[in-house]
Amino acid sequence: MKIIITAELLARFWSKIESLVGKTGFDCWNWIGGTDKDGYGKIYITIRRGFRIKFSSHRLSYIMFKGNLKHDLFVCHSCDNPSCINPFHLEAKIVLENNRDSAIRNRHYNKLVTHCPRGHEYNKENTYLSKDGSRSCRICRKLCDRKYTLTGSINNILNEQKKLSI
């Protein structure tokens, strides 16, 4: 979807940013317009005559200052401030990079889950962090590996017995 930046959109966009007086390019530019439950800024934009959508303000800022994005890229904050729209704090990443980054920075949506489904605690020693940023319980992984190794051994024995009886 291509966003058309109009004078009206620019005026609304700039009116919803906290005053930049005295700020530098290193400071966060905070969105003071509408936000979602996680604090990310939202703005309505018209994508074609009579059709408006709610759009992320940080994504719009990225597009305005750095150019259009592929639809599968996320716009991520290097400052960890969801209301920031400073283009110097924004970078485009694929979902795997975004998940990995949020897990490393302890911002992942699943961070409040402290135990695996079988009740083992997620801690430094017991947590496996995959390349895509997801985590799993080392104890459960070992149990699963043993189960499949045992199942495979039993199946091999049964197959050998079938061959012998034929």
Radius of gyration: 24 Å
Structural class estimated from helices and strands: alpha+beta
CATH topology of the largest domain: Homing Intron 3 (I-Ppo) Encoded Endonuclease, Chain A
- Count of domains: 2
Distance between the termini: 64 Å
Description:
The protein is α+β, with helices and mostly antiparallel strands. The chain has 2 domains: 1-93, Alpha-Beta Complex (Homing Intron 3 (I-Ppo) Encoded Endonuclease, Chain A), CATH 3.90.75.20; 109-166. It is 34% helix and 16% strand. It has 4 helices and 6 strands; from the N terminus they run H-E-E-H-E-E-H-E-E-H. The protein has helices at 7-15, 57-66, 95-104, 138-165; strands spanning 42-48, 51-56, 74-77, 90-93, 127-129, 135-137. It has a two-stranded antiparallel sheet. A hairpin with a 2-residue loop joins strand 1 and strand 2 (51-56). The longest helix has 28 residues, at 138-165. It is elongated. It starts with 6 loop residues before the first helix and ends with a helix. The relative contact order is 0.10. The mean pLDDT is 83.
Task: Jot down its keywords.
Homing Intron 3 (I-Ppo) Encoded Endonuclease, Chain A; 2 domains; two-stranded antiparallel ribbon; 4 helices; alpha+beta; 166 residues; elongated
Topology, please?
Blueprint: H1 7-15, E1 42-48, E2 51-56, H2 57-66, E3 74-77, E4 90-93, H3 95-104, E5 127-129, E6 135-137, H4 138-165
